[in-house]
Specification:
The protein is an alpha/beta fold. The protein contains 18 helices and 13 strands. 42% of the residues are buried. Bound molecules: iron/sulfur cluster.
Length: 457
């Protein structure tokens, strides 16, 4: 199965000696949304609020919040923090090999630090080794599964048309999300970040700048310049972009990254991007995207930065399945084109949980069969390790996990509501954005009709 199964199992034994629910990511991973003052560790549990008063003389409070300290205590005692339910569900499912908690335990930003974590007193604040930071929700896209909290374009749509009306009241109503502070408001979170950075920086192994769309935010370039002036040879620096901006932004990014590379200020520079399926399907899901421009931009990046990698986040959802065969072909060709004896194009396929109407669990067994074909395609191009350009066993295992997730339906009521809301949402989406679901997804007419019938019930 996994090339590194033995390593994971060895690590699991070590984790279990601490406790059966111990997870290093709760200590060493942080995503921090500075625009709205929220955080989580890792990215699977819901975000929670950072209280500004906890940051006074304590900028590390951006990560070591009372909630996370409490969850760490629970994990040390072998309890299961409720926010980590996706891991507990995976660990209870006999068809799933490993949860994220288990898979990540062998990552180089967790494994070497475990002994130190276990020995440190629980109340001791820790520095993350993997930090994902967002300065603002400014974004030129409005992806179907995103929200005004994370995209100003979404916010503008809701301001213009009002919330969506789904089964359980108005959806994307202001009461459903926490909006970031306004640009002219004092932001204690951004302020605390700049205070914290000099102390935090030597501990960081991975720093990922995300958004909204970080390339249209001034603090991103300020940070890139700061990094250029402060070498950290252990750091892998990543920037997350939708690659859907006018060329001048790409040029500025490339110039700043080249300066960092020339100064040998970091271990490596990598890019992250997101796309969840192929071509027109991807454009429909991610309003604002032009797939051919996206394809062109990432090829330019991979050509200009020949020792860098590109990681593609594919948030697997109900609209991913139909075009996923084309997506995998495209990915394989991209991998082969830019392969230079080692892998340069990575893919991660976390499954989307919410909003429920986009959850792949809403699909009928016909779509499970398609998933099996996609998995078979990857297996037909299976490679032993990342020195070759095909798909690894770990990637196939992740797709298998998506398939078992799809088959595991919470309840008939959940399914009815989610399917009904699929129709409500995309009917309204088409009206507001002048799109046509059936023109883009004619192969999903069965799903559309089934969802429409739930509206009439
Ligand atoms: S969701 Fe899983 S991987 Fe994330 S912190 Fe919780 S147990 Fe760890």
């Amino acid at each position: 199965m996994f090339g590194d199964k033995a390593r994971i199992d060895e690590m699991l034994e070590k984790l279990n000696r601490v406790s059966p629910t111990f997870c290093g990511a709760k200590w060493l991973h942080a995503t921090i949304h500075l625009g709205s003052g929220e955080t989580h560790s890792c990215y699977l549990p819901p975000v929670h609020k950072i209280e500004p008063e906890n940051l006074i003389d304590n900028p590390g409070g951006l990560h070591n919040t009372p909630e996370k300290m409490e969850q760490r205590q629970q994990m040390m005692k072998g309890e299961r923090p409720s926010g980590c339910h996706l891991c507990w569900a995976a660990e209870d499912d006999p068809n799933v090999d490993y949860s994220d908690r288990q898979l990540r335990s062998v990552d180089d930003w967790i494994m070497p630090h475990l002994d130190q974590l276990v020995e440190a007193p629980l109340e001791k604040p820790v520095y993350p080794t993997y930090l994902e930071i967002s300065f603002s929700n400014k974004c030129n896209f409005k992806c179907s599964y995103c929200s005004p909290q994370f995209s100003t374009s979404w916010k503008a749509e809701i301001d213009k048309f009002g919330p969506y009306k789904l089964t359980e009241g108005p959806y994307l109503h202001e009461s459903h999300y926490r909006l970031p502070l306004k640009p002219d408001q004092h932001n204690p979170y951004v302020e605390a970040f700049w205070q914290w950075l000099p102390d935090l920086y030597p501990h960081l192994q991975y720093l990922r700048v995300t958004g909204g769309e970080p390339l249209i935010v001034d603090d991103t370039y300020k940070l890139l310049n700061w990094i250029g002036d402060h070498p950290n040879p252990n750091l892998v620096l990543s920037v997350n972009s939708n690659f859907g901006l006018p060329e001048k932004y790409q040029k500025k990014l490339f110039a700043d990254l080249k300066k960092i590379e020339a100064a040998k200020a970091v271990r490596s520079v990598d890019m992250f991007t997101s796309v969840d399926t192929y071509g027109a399907h991807a454009e429909y899901l991610r309003t604002g995207m032009d797939f051919s421009e996206f394809d062109k931009s990432i090829r330019e990046y991979l050509t200009e930065f020949s020792s860098s990698s590109l990681s593609i986040m594919c948030t697997f959802n109900a609209l991913s399945v139909i075009g996923f065969g084309d997506f995998l072909q495209w990915l394989l060709e991209l991998r082969r084109t830019f392969h230079n004896g080692t892998r340069r194009v990575y893919i991660d396929t976390p499954h989307l949980n919410g909003p429920s109407y986009l959850n792949a669990k809403t699909l009928t067994p016909r779509y499970w069969k398609l998933m099996e074909q996609h998995i078979a395609f990857c297996e037909a191009h299976l490679v032993d390790n990342e020195k070759q350009a095909g798909f690894t066993a770990a990637e196939v295992a992740r797709l298998r996990r998506v398939l078992s997730f799809m088959k595991n339906i919470p309840s008939p009521d959940w399914l009815t509501t989610a399917r009904r809301d699929f129709y409500f949402f995309f009917k309204e989406h088409d009206r507001r954005r002048r799109t046509s679901f059936l023109d883009v997804f004619p192969e999903m007419e069965d799903h559309w009709e089934m969802c429409r019938q739930f509206v009439e019930l």
